[in-house]
Amino acid sequence: xxxxxxxxxxxxxxxxxxxxxxxxxxxxxxxxxxxxxxxxxxxxxxxxxxxxxxxxxxxxxxxxxxxxxxxxxxxxxxxxxxxxxxxxxxxxxxxxxxxxxxxxxxxxxxxxxxxxxxxxxxxxxxxxxxxxxxxxxxxxxxxxxxxxxxxxxxxxxxxxxxxxxxxxxxxxxxxxxxxxxxxxxxxxxxxxxxxxxxxxxxxxxxxxxxxxxxxxxxxxxxxxxxxxxxxxxxxxxxxxxxxxxxxxxxxxxxxxxxxxxxxxxxxxxxxxxxxxxxxxxxxxxxxxxxxxxxxxxxxxxxxxxxxxxxxxxxxxxxxxxxxxxxxxxxxxxxxxxxxxxxxxxxxxxxxxxxxxxxxxxxxxxxxxxxxxxxxxxxxxxxxxxxxxxxxxxxxxxxx
Length: 399
Ligand SMILES: [Zn+2]
Ligand SMILES: [Zn+2]
Description:
CATH topology of the domain at 1-119: Metallo-beta-lactamase, Chain A
Bound molecules: zinc ion
Radius of gyration: 26 Å
Shape: globular
Number of strands: 16
Strand order of the largest sheet: 6-7-8-11-12-13-16
Helix content: 25-40%
């Protein structure tokens, strides 16, 4: 679970797809209330669910695994106060890990809390989680600027790739019988056979499927520090507090515009983009509100910057399935490329027709050209021009 604003516990109860019983780990981006005020309630609820389950299956409460919380320095103190004042030290079992830039302080325990600190590497990246379980995955984090007194963590979750299937038939033909050797070969390892020969599992594996990648980019006016981590992400969830009409305001308040979110997704080579954290000046449903501006203007703007229409305005209870099959992803890419190619061909036909007209009737052609130029100029909102491609970094610098 990434962030825990006020009301998370209630919304989780209302949700048909999401349940707190499936949560083992919570990642906090920064200590602002809309990201952290619901944390303690959620942890208490998770503990209650775990205790109920333990009772049902006859497990001793002592065997309940602690929940994990990762976040900025201060998260341990924040929870400590609530643990001691609200639960008399009998609160949920929590392993807290503070992500720090300087030398980590020694770990300590207090009541049901265990606290440690984790320092970033030389490149400013936190290797937050390296999960080697049945479904191996990593979570990495970098800092992004938000307010003068507070930065935000960008989190990127990535699954390991799934290796292809083992070519058993070929191995059998080579006289290698199924057994423990197959298990090693399936992992792509080099194995020594009883006859002393070595074979490489990788030579007998089908094509692997890339793991899924999710990037959480919240509350920042400059997400460019997270671009390299989010490279090729299947889904980017990005702060989109304002429309670029209010770019200066967004910058001043430490937030991103929909255009920045789109540029981030494009520059990262991401496949899908979900916009979130809209200022309450924008509404989801414009029908019954006078002078309302809908969040659809954010989507339009992000689509243009992303150069892809795979953009959605996230809302409560929305579920976005991320498909593991690489084939599907390639299909989506192929469709995008086809769309771009078709648009280019159309443009070329138009130009050719214009040239044709110019030869036949120079005056009429001149009028036509003027019109097309005007259309092109108006094509992009705010007259940002069509020729030059802005990248995220230069867009932020211009603010
Ligand atoms: Zn914030
Ligand atoms: Zn916020």
